[in-house]
Design brief:
The protein is an alpha/beta fold. The protein has helices at about 20-40, 55-60, 65-70, 85-90, 95-105, 130-135, 170-185, 200-215, 230-235, 250-260, 300-310, 315-330, 355-365; strands spanning about 10-20, 45-50, 75-80, 110-120, 140-145, 155, 165, 190-195, 220-225, 245, 270-275, 280-285. It has 2 domains: about 1-115 and about 265-365, Isopropylmalate Dehydrogenase (3-Layer(aba) Sandwich); about 130-145 and about 175-265, Rossmann fold, CATH 3.40.50. The strands form 2 sheets. It has a 10-stranded mixed β-sheet with strand order 2-1-3-12-11-4-5-10-8-9, sandwiched between helices. A two-stranded antiparallel sheet has the order 6-7. The relative contact order is 0.16. The chain binds 3-isopropylmalic acid (IPM) and magnesium ion.
Length: about 375
């Protein structure tokens, strides 16, 4: 189907496949963007670049200058995954794939990481949580992405016997993401839960005070404050109680992995990292080296990342919804990748990465 004609846009999209299953899944996020361009008359110009372990192997750096320059020159970035097992069990290695991702987030000022968690009805039984607890859950996480212990000063004692990472937040860092989160809450169910550890941490007390100040500008939003330990429990106990969840970098990292179980699988969750200019879109799953190269990875998180990209960076809400609907349709038809197939799914419905990608494209073209 041809999409409703909007005024034609020329956009530059940088594709960074990264490591592990990254290239297998971004192939399909990119393909979806190509189909959209073909059907809508927009012009997307694609480039490709290296990051992570793949970049270390080729250039010695996890984020080569060339990649950063291309990134700064693009409108949006579609990213795959990062990491390699060889680094995970060797903490002595100084150059690490993840440094590439952290640096690009900082360099591009991507301070707000949006992670929507929705349960597709068809996947209710794929989660380890009971369907009656999950059904209807719809949460939008705002994870702060360029501060916290991730970027605070790191120290290691001269004799190697101690180490520290500084948890630091500045008021302006909390304020700018809080504003974005409240604005999003206004377009949803007007509920926001800010998650911190203000009973113990000074950085969290600043966080809470700043969010309370911002909340005054959004009197219609019902705001609650929750400690991270309680939030981790409530999320599994009653996910439907949450609408927008606002939290810091480390707590957000952990909570959103937990929340992936609400959508059935890590393979389903997409994310958008935004600041003031360029948007960066990626699945929340990792490089999954154990299944890399086997053609069985789930491409849906990359496809859903492409949906976020066209919505948030390009403003094509309708097209984005069509992509999501196509994913829904394929799931309704019964097709699954291995990670989301429960034991009742017949073998002929279990598809590989390309099989699943092709099904979504078919639906998008109908
Ligand atoms: C994520 C990842 C990254 C993070 C890693 C790969 C550095 O877990 O995007 O959630 O911790 O932010
Ligand atoms: Mg993570």
């Amino acid at each position: 189907m041809r999409f409703k004609k909007l005024s034609q846009m020329n956009k530059k999209i940088l594709v960074i496949p990264g490591d592990g299953i990254g290239s297998e899944v971004t192939k399909w996020g990119k393909r979806v963007l190509e189909v959209i361009a073909e059907n809508s008359g927009h012009h997307f110009q694609f480039e490709e670049a290296l990051m992570g372990h793949a970049a270390i192997e080729a250039t010695g750096s996890p984020l080569p200058d060339e990649t950063l320059a291309k990134a700064k020159n693009s409108d949006a970035i579609l990213f795959g995954a990062i990491g390699h097992a060889k680094y995970d069990n060797d903490p002595t290695l100084k150059v690490r794939p993840e440094q590439g991702l952290l640096k690009i987030r900082k360099e591009l000022g991507l301070y707000a990481n949006l992670r929507p968690v929705k349960v597709f009805d068809e996947l209710l039984s794929a989660s380890s949580i009971k369907p009656e607890i999950l059904s209807g859950a719809d949460i939008l996480f705002f994870r702060e992405l360029t501060g916290d212990v991730y970027f605070g000063e790191k120290k290691r004692g001269d004799d190697g016997s101690w180490a520290s990472d500084l948890m630091i937040y500045h008021q302006y860092e909390v304020e700018r993401i809080a504003r974005k989160a409240f604005q999003a809450a206004m377009t949803r169910r007007k509920k926001l839960c800010s998650v911190d550890k203000a009973n113990v941490l000074e950085a969290s007390r600043l966080w809470r005070k700043t969010v309370q100040e911002v909340a005054k500008d959004f009197p219609e939003v019902e705001t609650e404050y929750m400690f991270i330990d309680n939030a981790a429990m409530q999320l599994i106990k009653d996910p439907r109680r949450f609408d927008v969840v606002l939290t810091g970098n480390l707590f957000g990292d952990i909570l959103t992995d937990e929340a992936s179980q609400i959508s059935g699988s890590m393979g389903m969750l997409a994310s958008a990292s935004v600041g003031d200019h360029i948007g960066f879109y990626e699945p929340i799953h990792g490089a999954a080296h154990d299944i890399a190269g086997k053609g069985i990875a789930n491409p849906l998180a990359s496809i859903l990342s492409a949906a976020l990209l066209v919505d948030i960076t390009f403003g094509f809400k309708e097209i984005s919804e069509r992509i999501i609907k196509s994913v829904e349709k394929v799931l309704k038809q019964g097709y699954r990748t291995m990670d989301i197939a429960d034991k009742h799914i017949e073998n002929r419905f279990v598809l590989g990465t390309d099989g699943m990608g092709e099904k979504v494209i078919e639906c998008l073209n109908v």
